[in-house]
Input
Amino acid sequence: MKTSAEKHTPEPQQKKSHGCDDGLDDRLKRVMERTKVVRTEKQEAIAPEIDEVEAVCEQHGKYTAKRVLIIGNKYRTTQCPECEKEAAALREREEKARRAAERKRRIEGKIKQSLIPERYKGRSLENYRAGNGGQELALAVARKYATDFKERLAQGGGLVFCGLPGTGKTHLATAIANHVLRDGYTALFMTVLRAVRTVKETYRRDSDRTELEAINELSDPDLLILDEVGVQFGTEAEKMILFEIINTRYESMKPTIIVSNLSETELSEYIGVRVVDRLREGGGAVVAFTWDSYRGKVVTDEDLPAREIKPSESRVGMPESVDEVIKRQNL
Output
């Protein structure tokens, strides 16, 4: 006799089989087989038929060509390998010429934006004639500064060319600018009078720029050349503007070259010792031009071999060689 618990215990149910498991597996297998067949047929349909044939080039003679069946009875035959090499070489030459033309356009654009006067656009380190020891030193310093400009830019080192008028200061300064422009850097040439005027124009009520924006624009180029320092009236306000321009570039590690007809002592008194000190930092230097006027002695690049330095007419009063002076000045 069964107990009540046994009476209410459900009987284990048998899993009903619908007889479809085997059928499902078979259907999947048939689908996979059909897919495999379709893929194989497509692959065979798109696989090109390639064979080798003998061909003749009018210029280079016989060669073995590969013939590819495109559709129906139409074939595409490979070109002469020598012709392909020549075509590739031509494309490479054309690409080099295109890049060279593009680089020339970029350089010309940068030179135009640099505001270097037309008279000085052809000035270079190669067409500066060094006829005495002082000129050799000035040229060597300028060349070192230009060729090592990446280092100068990293350190923010400036340069001061000061001394007698007509001694080649602006020539060497613009030669440095032309050199770095061709190396892909940016440069800007301005007289101090024009730079100060650019900032003072922002004081007008209708000005669309602020004083800070004008100073920052002068700080953007990799190299700034300020010419004719000492020619302007030299009011305290103008000196403060000049200091702000140089100091902003100094803080941004941007090299500045100052050109002046004043002596080093007069220049320090005019713009302040701290301005000159800032230009000396980062490997900067002051070069004094104390010889006779240089004007009328410029030659073209074609007339003077590259990197030529004329022998000294006199080395009296120069106990150190050019290299020693450069080393001592950390240039």
About this structure: The longest strand covers residues 61-71. The radius of gyration is 39 Å. Residues 81-114 form the longest helix (34 residues).
